[in-house]
Amino acid sequence: MELSDRILQHVVDRHLVQAWNAQPETLELRAGNIHQEMRLSNRMPAVCSVVGSNRFQTLTRIRLLNRTGSQNGANATFVYKLP
């Protein structure tokens, strides 16, 4: 399994399923947290790329509302509107 698929699966399993069950209106994801949870090393651009991608939004049926922080750094934060 490629790294991008592993990142996507991790975010779905660890963050989205829990959010879907709790039913909040939005979900905030911080790239540094995901990077740390997965125990990755020097893969922050990959995390940001996956979490900020159109593919991620299409597969999960969520919509990016706001992105703040650095482009490919630990403080890149993504806020999504949940269905």
How would you describe the overall organization of this protein?
This protein is an alpha+beta fold and 83 residues long. It has one domain. The protein is 51% helix and 19% strand. The protein contains 4 helices and 3 strands; from the N terminus they run αβαααββ. A 3-stranded antiparallel β-sheet has the order 1-3-2. α1 packs across α3 and α2 crosses α3. The longest helix is centred in the first third of the chain and has 20 residues. The model has no long low-confidence stretch (mean pLDDT 95).
User: How much helical structure, as a percent, in the residues?
Assistant: 40-55%
Distance N terminus to C terminus? Answer: 28 Å
- Read across the widest sheet, the strand sequence of neighbours is 1-3-2
Specify Rg, calculated over alpha carbons: 12 Å
Specify the structural class.
Answer: alpha+beta
Shape: globular
Q: Helix and strand succession?
A: HEHHHEE
The poorly predicted ranges are none
> Into how many domains do the coordinates divide?
1
Strand content: 15-25%
User: Average pLDDT value?
Assistant: 95
Give the helix tally.
4
The largest pleated sheet is described as: 3 strands, antiparallel
Total E-strand runs:
3
